């Protein structure tokens, strides 16, 4: 299938028609560059100059679609025009072809044409003066520079400005794209963080409410029901307080209250006591020095979620929370009895394990959870190692 040549833009068609019309007007009034009968005119008469004029106008149609071809044909037409009486319209259109060849041509053409035309202008200035020894001979180089070097240099300047503007536009688009990507990542990370905080702050209280409400409904003993209702009320109040704090954060300044303190490892004792109040046989074995705040928060939330999972899924038996500070980081291990329960005491979504794994990963730590066999039978073991050396050095810097 034959490829159709590209059609010239309307502007180029207008330029060609305007140049041709201007040349015809000058021809009609007999205005040529050289008088008839002069020694420089090889083809005397008014009609021969129409041929290079028409060819030059046709080359204007190629100024953007094929600029080098148009310039080459235009150079031949200009040489033919020099053998006739000549037309100023032909020369003006040639300067436009030189300008367009630099502006719309290849980068190699844009680099070479100003140098070539500059050298030709210098040669056209020096050589005739050296041969003729007349000051008027210098005008040949001036005319050569005006017809070739000046439009080529102008085209190069315009092209450089155009390329710089295009580069700035592309950089602006890339910057906007990167900013949008950063915004999306920041929103995604913030949503994940809020989801972890919401789950960790509220799930423990709601799980206790669900378990004790089930006990209150299923047992007929009045004392047991009252104890269960007391636990339900306590967890309801604490859960509502946590929800209000979270809503205050999300309102972006609508809450004028002081922000809630970030949980620390010093609160593990109260956390374990709360787990005992909810019915777990929990104990704490912790020995650690001071650790960075991000590690404290992550460790507190991991222990909190582990106790919540034990409350919902663990079989009857002791629950042990063990923490130690080693050279490689803060080690956490939470064990609970595993097996012997067909259904959980409260429904779960699996988001707790995901949240704990994410918290460890954000600190470049490790996390694993699963059943293991031990001296006390089958246990569900949660292990996490949170490095503290790199974080502590980062905070000091």
From TrEMBL:
Using the record for this protein, list the coiled-coil segments as residue ranges, or answer none. none
Q: Does the keyword Phosphoprotein apply?
A: yes
Q: Which reaction does it catalyse?
A: ATP + protein L-histidine = ADP + protein N-phospho-L-histidine
UniProt enzyme class: transferase
Q: Which UniProt keywords apply?
A: ATP-binding, Kinase, Membrane, Nucleotide-binding, Phosphoprotein, Transferase, Transmembrane, Transmembrane helix, Two-component regulatory system
Matching entries from InterPro entries are given as:
HATPase_C_sf, HATPase_dom, Sensor_HK_TwoCompSys, Sig_transdc_His_kin_sub3_dim/P
EC number annotated for this UniProt entry: 2.7.13.3
Query: What residues does the Histidine kinase/HSP90-like ATPase domain cover?
Result: 297-375
Q: What is the lineage of its organism?
A: Bacteria, Bacillati, Actinomycetota, Actinomycetes, Kitasatosporales
Can you give the residue ranges of the Signal transduction histidine kinase subgroup 3 dimerisation and phosphoacceptor domain? 190-253
Q: Which residues cross the membrane?
A: 12-33, 113-131, 138-158
The answer to keyword Repeat applying to this record is no
* Listed name of the protein: histidine kinase
Q: Which GO terms describe its molecular function?
A: kinase activity
């Amino acid at each position: 299938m034959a490829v159709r040549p590209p059609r010239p833009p309307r502007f180029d068609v207008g330029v060609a028609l305007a140049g041709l019309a201007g040349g015809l007007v000058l021809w009609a009034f007999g205005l040529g560059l050289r008088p008839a009968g002069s020694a420089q005119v090889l083809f005397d008469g008014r009609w021969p100059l129409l041929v290079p004029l028409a060819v030059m106008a046709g080359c204007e149609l190629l100024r953007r679609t094929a600029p080098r071809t148009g310039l080459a044909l235009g150079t031949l037409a200009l040489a033919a025009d020099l053998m006739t009486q000549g037309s100023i319209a032909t020369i003006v259109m040639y300067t436009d072809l030189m300008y367009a060849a630099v502006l719309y041509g290849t980068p190699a053409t844009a680099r070479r044409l100003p140098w070539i035309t500059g050298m030709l202008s210098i040669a056209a200035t020096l050589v005739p003066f050296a041969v003729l020894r007349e000051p008027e001979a210098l005008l040949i180089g001036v005319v050569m520079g005006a017809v070739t070097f000046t439009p080529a240099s102008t085209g190069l300047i315009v092209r450089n400005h155009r390329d710089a503007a295009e580069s700035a536009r592309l950089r602006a688009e890339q910057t906007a794209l990167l900013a949008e990507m950063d915004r999306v990542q920041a929103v995604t990370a913030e949503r994940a963080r809020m989801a972890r905080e919401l789950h960790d702050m509220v799930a423990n209280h709601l799980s206790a409410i669900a378990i004790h409400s089930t006990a209150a409904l299923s047992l007929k003993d009045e004392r047991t029901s009252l104890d269960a209702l007391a636990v339900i009320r306590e967890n309801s109040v604490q859960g509502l307080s946590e929800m209000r704090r979270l809503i205050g954060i999300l309102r972006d300044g609508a809450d004028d209250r002081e922000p809630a303190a970030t949980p620390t490892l010093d609160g593990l004792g109260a956390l374990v006591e709360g787990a005992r109040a909810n019915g777990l046989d929990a104990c704490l074995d912790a020995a650690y020095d001071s650790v960075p705040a991000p590690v404290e928060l992550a460790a507190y939330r991991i222990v909190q979620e582990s106790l919540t999972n034990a409350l919902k899924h663990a079989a009857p038996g002791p629950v042990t929370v063990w923490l130690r500070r080693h050279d490689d980081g803060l080690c956490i291990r939470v064990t609970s009895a595993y097996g012997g329960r067909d259904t959980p005491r409260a429904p779960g979504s699996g988001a707790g394990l995901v949240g704990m794994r994410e918290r460890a990963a954000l600190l470049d730590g490790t996390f694993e959870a699963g059943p293991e066999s031990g001296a006390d039978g089958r246990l569900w073991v949660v292990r996490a190692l949170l490095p503290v050396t790199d974080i502590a050095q980062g905070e000091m810097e």
